[in-house]
């Protein structure tokens, strides 16, 4: 998005007094046209928040994160406040009767009184240690300070005429808090890593924070020069985000985080498009289009998506975002996926991300509800995908359905965003259901994004479908990567091969470990995992793991029966019984985030060398049980 100088932006930006992205509360025609069922839903939800006490967020509650690593207590209260305020604001706009105004004012005031609009886990200045309490003299723009500012800016924009009838102090307070907490640091600081001004290593924080900073600048900044400056900084920052992507549009953070990476990028582009009367329009840019297409290219079936890194297996994608992105880039598959996701939610077109309200999601979802409701949705079936930048392969047995085998595998490095030590990882689904799985990630704690991240079992290679040699697992860092990566695809076979030896430390004694993951299509389709390896010296201390969502059954020596969560003993896995013993262990799951994908237990099959191995070939073969 180069070329938009301050001079040019000053000419094309709509003045703040004329900027009308959505109707305000006094513009009743559009609000009265919203689907009556959705109106009833919002009113009913808002009534639950009437008379809310807006309990204080205490310093001791904030400090729990520093003391015991728990994020939940403060965050739950933080997000509850914002969910309440956003719901009340929408309900008041829909009804315009004044009965929610007192609660809205209480919510505005309570949030304005908070010392920090972000969360304790993000209370850290660049290049400094984590702080147990916020420093109000040095505001931090994290994801949720930005999102709170966006919510306050939309509240100001939508309700100002009604709030001013009560007292103009209310909107003046909003302006004061948004200005000092967000707009001023955004215009004057370059050191927040998510900006990309001092480091090119950015992730979903970049478009997510930018979308809310841009919202506050466009809706609330009265000074023309500062408004232009804010837009120009957003454009430069988004360029850093786009440069961080490979041309394949692959999101190494997974489908969940696409919602705040590609999805938030769309929100930025929509704001820029509307605020410039269409002059800022980059929807024909190939990378912007590829980023959108990642979503359906990572779809397995229904709510199952490829879940490498911190992505869960079951993802509720932002349906309205996918739908609108598809329309903007003229991609019927993405449009259909958005409509399909909407229908999976039984017509609930709320695009809430976890437990908070984003007006950038809710407003368009309200105003185009009937449109998406009347679109025929479906699962876009893509037989073969190769993301050559992030080195991820997907392959299906069938070309038009989710039946049969589905395989996804990855190379890459152990320095990806939300990284797990998982170079060479693969997953297998059968008839659209999980068979051999990637476990995912537990609920975030202080440990998750600390130096102790890889003490967490779900991050470790031995709890992925990978080998462990001489007791050594894969290590984290950019140097630990796949080499000699090769992908090939024909109608008969899709295959990914790589040498994963460099993902392990030298002490492992691995000289080469060439892994091949192949889906063979044909009359009798099968999946084959081949490992051809050579070590520095013979060892029996060699294992590899397979993670499954259902308990495997040792059918006979050399053959294991595998089940999905829908079918029992549907696939036979063959292995070399002369080389390996196998034992199966159950892993009880206590974490709610893992249980939401897998239930209360998963299983780990550990294959152990029976004899000292120096060089050998291991082949696992999966075939439908007949």
UniProtKB/TrEMBL annotation:
InterPro entries registered for this protein in UniProt: Chondroitin_lyas, Hepar_II_III_C
SUPFAM superfamilies associated with the record: Chondroitin AC/alginate lyase
Pfam entry (one): Hepar_II_III_C
Residues annotated as domain Heparinase II/III-like C-terminal: 401-546
Gene3D superfamilies cross-referenced by the UniProt entry: 2.70.98.70, Chondroitin AC/alginate lyase
Subcellular location(s) of the protein: Cell envelope
Name of the molecule in the record: Heparinase II/III-family protein
